[in-house]
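Inverse folding, one chain.
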C-alpha cells in the first residue's frame, strides 16, 4: 500500500525541467476546470465537482509543486533559485481553489446548497466547507472591474513576497573586528573565522551577523561597542524590504475591503480559534499589561548585572550608560551566570555535539511516538550536507514519510529555522496513500577544524521545535492534502512544536542528550542547574518582545485607509512594550525588514505563537511533565489524538479529546510565573 511513495523525492532539477513541470501542472488544472465547468447543472454533485477539485490539490509523488517552490530557500544554484522564484511569483499558491472560473464556482454553489451535509463523511463535509469558503466573501458578486483588480493585487503580492524572501535569503552583512574587539570569545571560535588584512594593516576577523557566529559574538564579546556594531549591522539589512512591506500592507488592506472585510486582519482571522481582531487585541494587551511589571523588575536586574560587569571589566569595555539596549541582555545573562555557576555556555556546549544531539532527539521521538528513523544515504538531495531520514511505524512497519534535514548554514540559504512541507499526505484515487515529506531547515554552528559542531541549550530547543512540526506532518494521515499535517487553524499550528520545546528544559532529557565531544561523559549536575536557571530567567522580557512583534503585526493589518509607516509603527511599539531600547538610530536601522513572518501565511497571525503556547503549556503540565516525560503510552495518545487528524477536525475538539476536558489557556500565565 505504501511502497510507491517510499521513494524519496527527485531533486535532479534544472530551470528547464522546472518550467516543464509547472507548465504540465497548470495544463492539468486548466483541463480539470474546463471539465467541471461543463458538468450539467443538474449533475453537479460531490463526486463530479468537489472530489475532483480536492484531489487536484494533492501533491505529485515524485516532483510535487511545493518542492519546486521550496528550492528558492535552499538551492546553492542561483539559476534554480531564480526558476523557483518565478514559480512563486507567477502562480503563488499551488491550491486550485484560488483559480476557479465562474462556471466552476456556480457548480460548487449548487452542490453546497443542495447536498445533505449530514450524510457526508466528516472529512468530505469539511473539504466542501473549505472549498466553498475560498470562493465566498461578504461581497461575493464582484463586478468585473473589482474582480480584475483583485487578480492584479494577488499577482503583485506574489511578486512582492518573492522579492522580500530573496532579499532576506541572500543578505550578507559582515562586521570586521580585531582580536581585542572580540575578547571574550574562545580561541577555537576565532580560528574558524575568515580573517582579512585591513587598510591599516591590522588583522581583522569577519563575523557574518546572520550566521551562528553572530549570535555567539552577541553573547560572549565583552566589549559593548562590538556587540552594538553587530546589533546595528543586523538591523541594517535589506533596506529595500521596508518599501515592499508598506506596499504589501496597502494592497492587503485594499483586497480585504474589495472582499467586504474591514481590514486584512479581519479576513485572515476568520475561521481561526481567535475568530476576530478584537479577541486577539484583548489577548495581547492583557498579556502585555500583566508582563510589564515583571519586565520592569527584570530590567532593574539587568542593570545591576551591567554595573557588576563594568566594575570587573572597566568603563572602557562596558559603557557608563545603565540603559539596557538590544545588545546587552544576551551577554549580561551569560557573563553573570558564568560568574555565579563557575561555568559558562562554552563549557556547556562541549557536552552537546550537534550530530549526537540530533540522533538522541530522534530517539526521543522514536520512544514517544512509536516510530523508527532510518537514514537513506543514497537519496537524491539539493545539497551534499542534507540527510534523508525514512520514518516507519514501529508496530505496523508501515512507511510514514521522509524528513530531510538541512542543518548547516551556507551562502544564499534561508537564514532562520523552519520546517517546510515538500509533499502533503493524501489518499490517491486508486486507494493507496501518498506519504508526506518535509524539510527541517536549520542554521546550527558548523564543525571546526579540530572539533565537531557544538550546540547551546537554545539551539537544542530550536531542533525540538522544528522536529515537532516535522512529526505533525509525518504522523498525520488525512484523506485530503488540504488538511494534512499542520494545515490546521493558524493559531493551532504551533501547538505540537511548542509542546516539544519543553523536552529541552527537563533535567532528565538534558542529561540524556549530553555526551562530551572528547570524553563521552554526561553533563554534571551543576551545569544542568545553570541551564535550567538561565531558562527560568527573564520570562517577562522574553514574552514582552513576542507581544511587541504580535501587536505590531495586528496594528499594521488593522489600520484604516492610508499609507503605513513601518519604521514609525515598529519604533513606537518596540520602546513602549519591550522595555529594551533600540539605539537612537531609527533612520538607520530597520529590523522589521528581516521579519520572515511578514509573509508565508503568518501575516496578521503571528499572535498564534502565543495563543498556541497557552494550549501547549496545558498539554505538557497535565499529561507529560514529571514521570510521563518519556511515557510511550501518553506519547501514542498524543500522536493519534492530536497529530494524526491534522486539520480534518477542529483544533479545540482535538485538545478536548486528548485532555478529556476543555483546554485551560490560563496555564500560560502559570508557566510564565504571573499567577
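Residues assigned per position:
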Amino acid at each position: 500500500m505504501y511502497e510507491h511513495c517510499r521513494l524519496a523525492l527527485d531533486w535532479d532539477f534544472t530551470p528547464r525541467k522546472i518550467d516543464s513541470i509547472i507548465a504540465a501542472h497548470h495544463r492539468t488544472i486548466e483541463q480539470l476546470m474546463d471539465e467541471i465547468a461543463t458538468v450539467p447543472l443538474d449533475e453537479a454533485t460531490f463526486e463530479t465537482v468537489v472530489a475532483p477539485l480536492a484531489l487536484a490539490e494533492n501533491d505529485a509523488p515524485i516532483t510535487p509543486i511545493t518542492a519546486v517552490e521550496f528550492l528558492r530557500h535552499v538551492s546553492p544554484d542561483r539559476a534554480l533559485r531564480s526558476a523557483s522564484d518565478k514559480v512563486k511569483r507567477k502562480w503563488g499558491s499551488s491550491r486550485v481553489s484560488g483559480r476557479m472560473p465562474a462556471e466552476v464556482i456556480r457548480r460548487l454553489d449548487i452542490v453546497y446548497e443542495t447536498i445533505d451535509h449530514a450524510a457526508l463523511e466528516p472529512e468530505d463535509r469539511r473539504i466542501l466547507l473549505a472549498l466553498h469558503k475560498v470562493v465566498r466573501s461578504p461581497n461575493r458578486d464582484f463586478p468585473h472591474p473589482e474582480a480584475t483588480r483583485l487578480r492584479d493585487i494577488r499577482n503583485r503580492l506574489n511578486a512582492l513576497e518573492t522579492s522580500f524572501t530573496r532579499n532576506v535569503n541572500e543578505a550578507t552583512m559582515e562586521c570586521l573586528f580585531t582580536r581585542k574587539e572580540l575578547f571574550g570569545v574562545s580561541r577555537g571560535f576565532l580560528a574558524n573565522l575568515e580573517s582579512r588584512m585591513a587598510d591599516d594593516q591590522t588583522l581583522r576577523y569577519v563575523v557574518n551577523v546572520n550566521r551562528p557566529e553572530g549570535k555567539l559574538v552577541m553573547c560572549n564579546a565583552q566589549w559593548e561597542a562590538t556587540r552594538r556594531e553587530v546589533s546595528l549591522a543586523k538591523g541594517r539589512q535589506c533596506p529595500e524590504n521596508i518599501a515592499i512591506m508598506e506596499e504589501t500592507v496597502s494592497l492587503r488592506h485594499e483586497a480585504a475591503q474589495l472582499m467586504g472585510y474591514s481590514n486584512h486582519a479581519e479576513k485572515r482571522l476568520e475561521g481561526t480559534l481567535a475568530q476576530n481582531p478584537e479577541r486577539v487585541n484583548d489577548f495581547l494587551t492583557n498579556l502585555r499589561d500583566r508582563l510589564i511589571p515583571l519586565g520592569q523588575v527584570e530590567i532593574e536586574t539587568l542593570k545591576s548585572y551591567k554595573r557588576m560587569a563594568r566594575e570587573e571589566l572597566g568603563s572602557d569595555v562596558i559603557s557608563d550608560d545603565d540603559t539596557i539596549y538590544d545588545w546587552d541582555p544576551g551577554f549580561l545573562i551569560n557573563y553573570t551566570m558564568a560568574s555565579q555557576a563557575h561555568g559558562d555556555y562554552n563549557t556547556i556546549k562541549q557536552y552537546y555535539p550537534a550530530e549526537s544531539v540530533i540522533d538522541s532527539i530522534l530517539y526521543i521521538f522514536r520512544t514517544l511516538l512509536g516510530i523508527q528513523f532510518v537514514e537513506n544515504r543514497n537519496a537524491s538531495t539539493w545539497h551534499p550536507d542534507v540527510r534523508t531520514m525514512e520514518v516507519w511505524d514501529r508496530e505496523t512497519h508501515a512507511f510514514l514519510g521522509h524528513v530531510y534535514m538541512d542543518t548547516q548554514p551556507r551562502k544564499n540559504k534561508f537564514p532562520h529555522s523552519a520546517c517546510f512541507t515538500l509533499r502533503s499526505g493524501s489518499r490517491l484515487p486508486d486507494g493507496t496513500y501518498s506519504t508526506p515529506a518535509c524539510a527541517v531547515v536549520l542554521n546550527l554552528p558548523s564543525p571546526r577544524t579540530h572539533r565537531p559542531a557544538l550546540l547551546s541549550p537554545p539551539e537544542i530547543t530550536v531542533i525540538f521545535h522544528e522536529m515537532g512540526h516535522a512529526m505533525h506532518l509525518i504522523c498525520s494521515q488525512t484523506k485530503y492534502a488540504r488538511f494534512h499535517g499542520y494545515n490546521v487553524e493558524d493559531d493551532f499550528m504551533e501547538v505540537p512544536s511548542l509542546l516539544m520545546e519543553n523536552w529541552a528544559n527537563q533535567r532528565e532529557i538534558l542529561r540524556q542528550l549530553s555526551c562530551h565531544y572528547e570524553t563521552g561523559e554526561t553533563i554534571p549536575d551543576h551545569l544542568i542547574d545553570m541551564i535550567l536557571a538561565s531558562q527560568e530567567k527573564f520570562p517577562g522580557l522574553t514574552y514582552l518582545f513576542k507581544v511587541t512583534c504580535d501587536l505590531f503585526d495586528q496594528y499594521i493589518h488593522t489600520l484604516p485607509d492610508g499609507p503605513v509607516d513601518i519604521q514609525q509603527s515598529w519604533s513606537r511599539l518596540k520602546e513602549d512594550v519591550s522595555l529594551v531600547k533600540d539605539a537612537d538610530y531609527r533612520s538607520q536601522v530597520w529590523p522589521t525588514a528581516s521579519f520572515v513572518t511578514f509573509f508565508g501565511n503568518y501575516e496578521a497571525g503571528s499572535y498564534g505563537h502565543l495563543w498556541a503556547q497557552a494550549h501547549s503549556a496545558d498539554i505538557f503540565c497535565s499529561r507529560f511533565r514529571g514521570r510521563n516525560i518519556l511515557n510511550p503510552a501518553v506519547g501514542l495518545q498524543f500522536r493519534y489524538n492530536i497529530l494524526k487528524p491534522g486539520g480534518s477536525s477542529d483544533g479545540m475538539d482535538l485538545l478536548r479529546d486528548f485532555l478529556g476536558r476543555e483546554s485551560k489557556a490560563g496555564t500560560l500565565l502559570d508557566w510564565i510565573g504571573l499567577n
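The domain at 13-168+245-269 is CATH 1.20.1050.40 (Glutathione S-transferase Yfyf (Class Pi); Chain A, domain 2). Strands lie at 174-177, 195-197, 203-208, 371-375, 387-393, 399-406, 418-423, 426-427, 433-434, 437-441.
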